[in-house]
Amino acid sequence: MTCVVDPTYIQPVEYRAKPPVPVAENTPIIDFSLLSSETVDPEAKAKLAKEVGAALRDWGFFHCINHCVSREIMDRVRENLALFFHQPLEEKLKVKRDLNNPVGYNNTDHTKNTRDWVEVYDYMLRDPVEVPASHDPEDKDIMLLRNQRPAFPPGFQDVVHEYGQYLEKLGFQILELVALDLGLPEDRFEPLFDNHASINRLNHYDPCPAPDLVLGKGWHSDISALTLLAQGVPTGLEIRGLDNEWIKAKSIPYSMTIQNGDLMEAFTNGLYRSVEHRVVVSGESEMYSSALAIVPAHHVTVEPLPELINEQHPSKYVGFNYGKFFMVRRLSNYKKLDHDNVRVHNFKKSA
């Protein structure tokens, strides 16, 4: 039989999506309209925090509606993504990212050593951002990352920058709610995310002639504390559920899907688990999405918050430097590895 896609895209049999995958009808949907008020009642905010906490503990994610990210900016971003990604490849490659500057355009991302059926444009919410010069633990040098700015469409970088400001506000609102759920002051995470290095990824998935053989994004957990995902319609997001089976995420226009990442699992000493997910592709429709990874500055040590540790609840994770974690994780985007990429589970202490 003739292969209809480049073999580098073909997933190992055990990783391929096996339809039908059920839609998760009972997954949590949380209304954030309360936070749009000029003054927020503390009791109502505490109740909202418990909703968010229950969702992130029990499911690892939730769908956020009536949030602070305007529909108008979400529509403008979608229009600009279509214009940018539909350019000739040689134009997009003018802002291609590489090992020296891991922000910009790429169409050769790999997950678990298999190429993803996706093209992406990554940019940082803050520009420039300091990161380690290499993943070598002994290398103390620092380098500056700067966003690459596409020439087309005109004003593209301004639109995505404005979008990023909305996302940043929502992300810090959620961090406040997480802190309250944990019984901590709402500003507990602020010092950890001061001068944060958060990156927003803009995704485009073309229709695929062999959707049963490939994945838009192979299964993984995120490098972030939280990921704020704006799904398009249609969506290909699937999440590993409580029973270890895959479930298809709901597609709710203008919602945000909020997911725990590896850093949140470590910060909360395992109370909030990092959720595994993947993206399946369509044989007929193209798809767009954006995913903001909320991450700290490079020098932050990621470890369980000391307020959560006591004799009954000892620390379950060894502390690690976020910057080096980022530099190691990004290697798999550019080359095949002879081992699984690093995840938070690599820092879990033996029982």
UniProtKB/TrEMBL annotation:
Q: Which keywords does UniProt give here? A: Iron, Metal-binding, Oxidoreductase
* Molecular function (Gene Ontology), one example: oxidoreductase activity
Q: Where is the Fe2OG dioxygenase domain?
A: 188-296
Which Pfam family would be a valid example here?
Answer: DIOX_N
Taxonomically, which superkingdom?
Eukaryota
Quote the PROSITE patterns the UniProt record gives.
FE2OG_OXY
The molecule here is called Fe2OG dioxygenase domain-containing protein
Originating organism: Amborella trichopoda
